[in-house]
UniProtKB/TrEMBL annotation:
ABC transporter domain sequence ranges: 5-234
Keywords for the protein's UniProt record, in alphabetical order: Amino-acid transport, ATP-binding, Cell membrane, Membrane, Nucleotide-binding, Transport
Pfam families: ABC_tran
Record-given protein name: ABC transporter ATP-binding protein
InterPro entries linked to this entry: AAA+_ATPase, ABC_transporter-like_ATP-bd, ABC_transporter-like_CS, BCAA_Transport_ATP-bd_LivF, P-loop_NTPase
GO MF annotations in UniProt: ATP binding
Gene: livF
Cross-referenced Gene3D superfamilies: P-loop containing nucleotide triphosphate hydrolases (3.40.50.300)
Family of the protein in this entry: Belongs to the ABC transporter superfamily.
Amino acid sequence: MTASLKIQGLGAGYGGFNVLRSIDLEVGSGLTVILGPNGAGKTTLLKALAGLIPRTGTVLLDDTLLPVRQSGVAVRRGMALVAEGRQLFPQMTVTENLELGGWLSTKAQRAERLRQALADFPRLAERAQQLAGTMSGGEQQMVAVARAMMSAPRLLMLDEPSLGLAPRMVDELLGIARRIADAGTTVLLVEQNVKKALAVADRAHVLERGALVAGGPAAEIAQSDIVRHAYLGVA
Ligand code: ATP
């Protein structure tokens, strides 16, 4: 079930403006976090991988080349992205939002995955018929993650899932990401909560101005000068 991602010479940007410059990155099983300041290109990286914006270079998912700019293909191959801002349908119930995540699956698969999602997210099971737009920010983020899991991805990408959430909710969401990784889905996480993200991640990479400047086991990156000084505020 777990996926490996090999990224070679990846470039991406907007309207001729290059944000990412020749990214080489391998993402194996477990939980990998991408850290970096605002505007470094973290969201751009996830969008480029998901095929939502044009890119150059190669992306291999389990050694199979992923075509550029076809997000449907990426989903069929087992990739799912939870974008920043969640993008739920606020006037639809939790269940209806989840069912949309299974758009490529059969009715029977969808029913089974919905049952599994509600078992994995008891807080959502309690609110299955509630309109998504009336839920708290953290609950909405849970719906977005559970919806992505409805496509049974082998690689789940999460773009700042804890943005704007209270500390307890941040812990809960990072715990969910960890559990998903432990259950066998490869997780690629973009996160601003550097300390908390490094505590749950297996590996970490630092992106600055469109280039990777450090990478390795999360515990080592947490001790590195670059992260201690620039991100953890250690003098
Ligand atoms: P943040 O943590 O603030 O979300 P980020 O590391 O995710 O930052 P990106 O959102 O990838 O950074 O943005 C990288 C650069 O690309 C920024 O300079 C940003 O202004 C630019 N950019 C992002 N989206 C677009 C867009 N749709 N059109 C043009 N430029 C964009």
